[in-house]
Amino acid sequence: MKFRKTRRCSITANNLLRFSVGIALVFSALSVAADCQSGKGITSNDVIAVTGEADTLWTLVWEGPRNQFAVNSIIHGGDSVSLNKDNNWLSYTLGCISSDIHDLAYGDGRLVLCFDTLKFGQPNPVLLLTRNGNSINKQDFSLGWPVDSSSLDLTAREVVWVNNAFYFACMDAGLVRWDYKNQTKSVFSPGKSSSVPVNEFPGLESKPDTMLRVIGLERHENDVMVITPARIWRFSTIDSSWDSSISSQLVNSELNFSGFEAVYPEPGKDGLLLSRIRVKKRIAGSWKDTLILAKYSRTQKNWRSILEQTVYDVAFGPGHYFFVLTEKGISAFQDSLADTLVTRSAVINTSVFQNWITRNFAISEPVLTDLHYVGLTDSTGYLLLASTDGTFLARWQYPPAEKVTFYQVKRAPPVRSGLKQTYARPGVLVADMYDQQSRTVFIYNLSRDANVTIRVYDYNMDLVKTIISNKFRRAGNNGGQHGRSTVENEDWWDGRNSSGKMVAPGVYYYRISTDIGERAFGKIVVAK
Q1: How big is the CA angle at 74 (ends 73 and 79), to the nearest 5 degrees?
Q2: How far apart are CA 126 and CA 123, in angstroms?
Q3: Whose CB among 16, 86, 274, 394 lies 3.0–4.6 Å from 264's, allowing a Cys bridge?
Q4: Which residues lie across from 321 on neighbouring strands?
């Protein structure tokens, strides 16, 4: 699997910069349409981020052809049929906003997106979206700093929802709480329980210290875990107190602490606490910068490295399982919470996750962008993986099943039934791509259930390969996947003949036939 971007990394929406990495989620709209409007249906399969709780799901997507962002939302029962019905989804296009999106958070039926301060033209703009029947409503507001921000960075980099309020990580200003019910906005400085209204923020008495900036946050029960490079604070949303007992001590002698970048607290009072930490590692007599994922010991008050990889996001499942997204893909680990036990080997590695997805869908290397876990009970929930080809959802349980079935949720344009409209996707296989197991999928739709045969022929109409023979397929209007008859993990061709050898470049033809008399022909090009 490939990884592109996640909620906690910096990526512009420019396809040329897709794989750049940073700390905050930044998506730049290159040029935008004029409208922000509510609609129906999934707007794009290029999913950037996914969030939600219980049966409500929100995705942030990039609409490449229109150079704009959109959000999609659904209230679902977790079944693939309802999730893949386009009309069950609501959408909201963000064409009127030409700005970077730093982060998003969902809570109490509300989705909040925070934007780049400078490009938007007003201090800390925030967008609130809510579902209202068959539409999504938008409300704009700004944190409205009264001070000159030319010497301060007051950008809201991240946002979380806790206890009927949204909290923002606002760099030099500190932590901001927006109580949307009482319409109050308050600023808290790390270590100080008192607050001031945002519109009365006096600024700083001295030059900003980059090690003390609030660069991120995460929800944990009734607290907000507040991240500065120098320290991880625990802020109580009940009494506004600050706990600074989490140390920055590393137990690994070959590592020197440079700064915290992210924190990942497991739900529950005594759950696992992980952090992405920037360190200097001694290699061949010199110190080099690197990133680690570390585990905190509450009794020994120190951090121990468990992964020396660039970790982009972590989500926690039942049974002390945690899912880690890195540049290599997704893996699952399990921890006993014992201070002496250090988890280093994945219980479920990247190749297993890749097989679970590719065996059901004709995708050789899913490009993952985000992950999210929604717990339903103490032992069950949903694991959600955002990708450039839709969202993958699986019911997760503890202990995990030997095989996990993922459902693909994606926008699938309607295909005329009766085999009146068929095509291969993609229509061109490039030699250096299909040699690495790239595939073309045959897209078709039957008027009613039937047994289907698909064959590929060369230019002389000599048989190259039989893809499926007399296989049962459902009509799209009778439960077929995405409203079609195609079964994507079976109805595909990888450019090989019946002997398993790569075919020569050229034009090839496919024929789809059924036992109900419906037939269709199409063309595939194999290029050098």
Answers
A1: 140
A2: 9
A3: 274
A4: 334
Taking only the tens place, the pLDDT of each residue in 481-494 is: 777 899 888 899 98
Give the separation between CA 306 and CA 302, rounded to whole angstroms: 13
Using CA atoms, how far apart are residues 341 and 451, in angstroms rounded to an integer? 54
Chain-centroid distance of CA 439 in Å reads 24
Lowest mean pLDDT among 109-113, 198-202, 345-349, 432-436: 432-436
The DSSP code sequence of 41-87 is S---S-EEEEEEETTEEEEEEEEGGGTEEEEEEEE--S-HHHHT-GG
For residues 465 and 463, what is the distance between their CA atoms, to the nearest angstrom? 6
Q: What angle do CA 505, 511, 513 make, to 5 degrees?
A: 160
Long-range contacts of 343-351 (CB under 8 A, 24+ apart): 343/295, 343/306, 344/306, 344/307, 347/321, 348/400, 350/1
- pTM summary value: 0.81
Cα atoms in the 13 Å half-sphere on the side-chain side of 383: 27
Query: What is the distance between the alpha carbons of residues 377 and 318, in angstroms, rounded to a whole number?
Result: 9
Question: Which residues face 425 on adjacent strands?
Answer: 441
Per-residue model confidence as pLDDT tens digits over 375-384? 989 999 999 9
Give all strands (DSSP E) within 266-405, no chain letters: 273-283, 286-297, 302-307, 311-316, 321-326, 329-334, 367-375, 380-387, 390-397
What integer is the mean pLDDT of 181-187? Answer: 93
> What gap in Å lies between CA 32 and CA 486, rounded to an integer?
34
The token pair at 411 is 């926008």
Domains and CATH numbers, the chain: 250-309 (no CATH), 423-527 (2.60.40.4070)
- pLDDT tens digits for 296-339? 998 999 999 999 888 999 999 999 999 999 888 899 998 876 65
**8 A C-beta contact, residue 39 and residue 93:** yes
Q: Pick from 1, 49, 51: which is nearest to 367 by CA? A: 1
Residue 27: pLDDT over 50: no
pLDDT bracket for residue 204 (50, 70, 90): confident
* Neighbour count for residue 306 (Cβ, 10 Å): 18
Residue keyed to tokens 């977790």: 78
Q: Which residues contact 400 (CB under 8 A, 6 or more apart)?
A: 321, 332, 348
